[in-house]
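Q: Entry one of two.
A:
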Amino acid sequence: MTNSLCNGHSNPICHTGDAKLTNGIVEHVAMTGENVNVIDAETDTRFNIDHSSGFRTKSILCLPIRDNNTKIIGVAQILNRTDGFPFDEHDERLFEAFTLFCGLGINNTLMFNEVSKAMATQKVALEVLSYHASASQQEVEVLKSAKVPDKRSLRLSKFDFDDFSLKADEMTKASLRIFLDMGLIQRFKMDYEVLCRWLLTVRRNYRPVAYHNYRHAFNVMQVMYTVLKTTNLVLTDLEQLSLLVACLCHDLDHRGTNNAFQEKSQSPLSKLYGSKATMEYHHFNHAVVILSSQVCLNVAGWESKCIKVAGWESKLK
């Protein structure tokens, strides 16, 4: 609403941006949906005269703007007919047609935003699918049959653990050792093959960027494992599982750029998730996609349990 339309009205939206409705002609139309045609504004109790501007309001025509469901989404107002006469029925019909076009324009803009978001969703999905793939059965069989190193030989539960001593395949085996040593496979009756496939798929879904890569994710999970093994934290098995899964998945599909870059470049990610915590939402959603995918399903139902224990289930809706 422009200043000229705010002249003589006490609605704080004109000055503060606060959408709370209080009084005045605009408020009356917004609340009731009635057309208001004021012949003499200065005698109308809903109108507050603004002496500071020097502008004199004589007549007012104020109508609601509705969407395609007839819901009021705005108010349009015109002041002072140029010939000095009050607004008549002909003016009201013309202005009503104008408000109809306003409603269509606003509604189309909202629909365009929804379509743009849907297109961004599709583009992000295509980007992910074109870059990533789930682990092959051959890779799964190799990891499944591989000997998993002992935690002592790896010094896995030490805070001075050197992850650079391990290659990618060795880090994946070390991840298996963490799940085995924590007893999570037995407690949650995980299918060992599915767990191997999930670990390999997570590894594939990290890009070879400088820092937020698979090695970084493994390093974070190793630190969490060390904390769980060497401190007296009182956590349930499900909470421990959730923490390890979150650590390994926390930077999935990181592009090597920050949220500010996503916003300034108007990337599909920023259009999909917005400018606040863009990458964090993407990491989380990507983790859920992997946990819920056909190749990684049925790990004794722990993918849904990990989501619920962190209070994330509402964010998936």
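Q: Entry two of two.
A:
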Amino acid sequence: MNPEQVVNCKETFSDDPDLNRVYLAILEACEQITLHIRYNTSNKITTANDFGDVQLDFDVQIDSILFESLKESGVVYGASSEERPYLTKLSENGKFFVTFDPLDGSSIIDSNLAIGTIAGIWRRSEGQEDLTGKTARGEMVGAALSCYGSRTNIVLFNDCTKTVDELTLQKKQDGSEDEWVLSQKKMLIRPEGRFFSPGNAKSMKYNKGYRDCIQFWAKNGYTLRYSGGMAPDCFHVFMKGEGIFSSVSHPGKVKPKLRFLYEVAPIAYLCEMAGGQSSDGEISILDVPVRGYDHIHDIIIGSSSEVQRCVRFLQVYKTEAG
């Protein structure tokens, strides 16, 4: 790790010192991002990323913060982001790939709602040049979800203890500097949940199974928690230890909305490591092969019973169509 890159954190996240460096690089970047979004103004710029989203200057600036921090770690072979959906080589002898969404929820940032960073860490085999064809179950070794709101928190997979933990960025007691403090150990997502966050809801017009599922949640007293940002809505599931987040498409009418490498796979990994479940309506997200750096995909994550219920609703009409 770059000697100038100092992260105040007493936790160890892996027995592999190189994997631990990747986590420290992400923590360092999230600390910088916290300051950046709090004390700078966000403006739209005249470009769009490869997915067609109008970029904010924040998107580009925060993307650079993460790339620079990962490069300084010295152990990441290559990285790819939603803003740069192609592999950028960082260290020739690196052991890992990192894929990330630098600023998830940037479309709601002007409303001052919570936003976040999502990252997945993938093992690199000798001679491997990219992630196409790989699965999260086979190759992902870590993931992190940060949330920037009234405070800065991060949920990540601790490889030492095989748990999903939460850290909070706090001032030291003497006020000298910030430090990451363990605030929850072994976060678990219970099988039953009463919160729902239905993304890509416009597909309800065509996808009758998704419509019926959302109507079931609404009619049976579930609590709606939907901000329009995947990172804060999924963060809510981890913090409450229950609930469901979904984003479902309909072939030929409404495309999948979320990016597989940068959003879908890392969140699904964290969810399953916390005892929850993930699905795309057919199989676990962790078993879906990467189709490229522009891969978009459906996702359902959260309490296992609720994920299974949603899948059953979706399958009813698929069976009838078949």
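A: Comment on entry two: Helices lie at 17-39, 57-73, 136-139, 208-219, 230-240, 260-273, 304-321. The first strand starts at residue 44 and ends at 48.
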